Amino acid sequence: GKVQPGDFVVGGSNFGLGSSREHAPRVIAQCKVAAVLAKSFARIFYRNSINVGLPVLECDTSGIDAGDELEVDLARGLIKNLTKDTEIKFTPIPGFMRELLEDGGLAAHIRKHNGFKL
Q1: pLDDT digit string (tens) for 73-116?
Q2: Are 52 and 58 spatial neighbours (Cβ–Cβ below 8 Å)?
Q3: CATH label, 8-112, candidates 3.20.19.10, 3.40.50.150, 3.75.10.10, 3.40.50.720
Q4: Coil, strand, or helix at residue 29?
Q5: In the chain, where are the structural domains located?
Q6: Which positions fall inside the Aconitase A/isopropylmalate dehydratase small subunit swivel domain (predicted)?
Q7: Which run of H or E residues covers position 88?
Q8: Do 3 and 27 contact (CB within 8 A), yes or no?
Q9: What percent of the chain is modeled with pLDDT above 90?
Q10: How many alpha carbons lie under 13 Å from residue 8 in its C-beta half-sphere?
């Protein structure tokens, strides 16, 4: 089916490899995807995703199937699979990066704070 707002994209290893521009994560973010979950990410894709306000979480995705209902807690580093009643841990996103995501990305953060707020 089609991507719906709040859906999650679930991938494998080195997700986003070959994409050095912000276009790829920007398109995913514009689809109102809640987050991308993958075993690992290409570093430039990861950075670009945070810059455009798209949460990208490195975790074990082997227990997630299409259609599973998920709930993510960025601060605690926890994904709850409500369908299977399981939990997946990931390294919590650091405070400043969480703030960028909450503000909608780097450009929105700069506008909100009239410059960088570290």
Answers
A1: 998 999 999 999 999 999 888 989 999 999 999 999 999 988 76
A2: no
A3: 3.20.19.10
A4: helix
A5: 8-112
A6: 9-57
A7: strand 86-89
A8: no
A9: 83
A10: 23
Rounded to 5 degrees, what angle do the CA atoms 23, 3, 98 make? 60
Alpha-carbon separation of residue 92 from 23, 24, 53, 99 (angstroms):
25, 23, 16, 13
DSSP 92: P
In the numeric block, the tokens 């995807």 are attached to 33
Q: In what order do the strands lie in the sheet with 56-58?
A: 8-10, 35-38, 56-58
Residue 45 · residue 16 · CB < 8 Å? yes
Which tokens go with 101? 């995501």
For residues 12 and 91, the model is more confident at: 12
Residue type, 18: G
- Helix 95-103 vs helix 43-51: crossing angle, to nearest 10: 60
